[in-house]
């Protein structure tokens, strides 16, 4: 009888340990940026009609952010911005103007996570170099000089559209890596 209860205890311990390990492994695979929007409780302050300018160590102004309102949460050291408008400065390459329904910022202001109808426009005088990126979620790291998403992406450029799932833009090297399901629709011009 005692031998049987020991087996049950060992079996219970083995099943519980396996379930806990599987849960921890699943949590380890989740992207770290998904933790950013976990804003709980009441904000410690609220601002309307604000402007934030983030300055880098050597390159000067990294980005300029404004929006309809900002709620700061001191417990997490983070903030949520309603209707954000963001300008990321290029310092030798193009600037980018971005807008979205909402933005989430960590305590240091990096990275910025934009969600809901995100639009990123490359600022250039040359109409052949203009492009607009549309997605539902975009992470911008102006110190690392990249933008990325795992969501569906539409890139509109002078001669058509490119659709994809997932993207990373290197702002320094002016390169865009589209990850999967890439499809292009191009306009033809009469000769």
Care to describe what's here?
The protein has 191 residues and is mainly β. The chain has 2 domains: 2-30; 41-186, lipopolysaccharide transport protein A fold. Helix content is 15%, strand content 52%. The chain contains 1 helix and 11 strands; from the N terminus they run αβββββββββββ. The protein has one helix spanning 2-29; strands at 45-55, 61-73, 78-82, 85-88, 95-99, 102-105, 112-123, 131-141, 146-157, 160-170, 175-186. It has a 6-stranded antiparallel β-barrel with strand order 2-3-6-7-5-4. It is globular and about 80 Å long. Mean pLDDT is 75; it is low at 17-36.
Task: Describe the structure in brief.
The protein is mainly beta and 191 residues long. The chain is built from one helix and eleven strands.
Record keyword descriptors for this entry.
globular; 1 helix; 6-stranded antiparallel beta barrel; mainly beta; 52% strand; 2 domains; lipopolysaccharide transport protein A fold
